[in-house]
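Recall from the previous lesson that a structure prediction takes nothing but the amino acid sequence as input. Here we apply that procedure to Vacuolar ATP synthase subunit D from Spodoptera exigua. The sequence below is the only information supplied.
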Amino acid sequence: MNTDNRYPVTASLFMLKEIKHRQEQVNRGYQLLKRKAEALRMRGRQAASELASTQAILGHILREAYISLAAIKFTNGESNALVLENIGQAQIRVQRIPENISGVATVSLQALEEVGAWDSMCYAGLGAGGHRTSEAKKAFREAVRTLVKFASLRNTCILLDESIRSTLRKVNGIEKVIMPKLRNTETYILMEMDEREREEFHRLKMVKAKKVKNQARAVQLRQSASFGGAGETGEGDEAEPDLPPQCEPIECLTSILACSSLSTTTESGDFKPVCYPHNWDDDDLLF
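The prediction returns the following tokens.
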């Protein structure tokens, strides 16, 4: 098996349990990340749809606001200098509300209107075009609220998009890299343990065969030894044949010397010693 696609571990029962425990943890994390990605996608689709509708409404509101501003300019003339001179306390403020969407920290923006704030332009347009001025003020306030909502939804969509990408990268990394490595590592450990078990079984089989062979050889040797002892005992019980009487060693030597002193010559001139029969055993020569 390719060592690049598995973790470098030793094939043991402890590592097998550890790898299985890691697989359980990885599977749990994989399922949680998939659920997180699905929740982020759902929330992102919802935010994207709201963003699209808000963008369409924002264009219409801004168009109506600038049309009302043009009507004021047509009725009262240029009033930008008067507005800039009378700028005071802000009547609309933006509040940041932190939100947690499936573990992703986002910020929601909400427009708050200060009721107690003094309006410096409250008396603008009393001489002429007051109705147009109030309509323009309402239109631009609505445009500000819509812009704040649009910014909040856009920020949420950007954060959710980044979170979805990072979560999907983690999910793909676990699915394509970590989980195959863990499975290959578990397969490698099981193969090595099976191979060791087969080797141990073969070794025990060979040891048992050798032991049986040695036992059979020992039994055979004992049987042959018992049969040999029984044969020798039977031969000893038989009557020994009559042997000629043996002479003493000194007498045998004397007879040998007497035989060596006698000699005859054949007709062809070859020397041929003559030895008379003697009664002695070959074992007596050792003495």
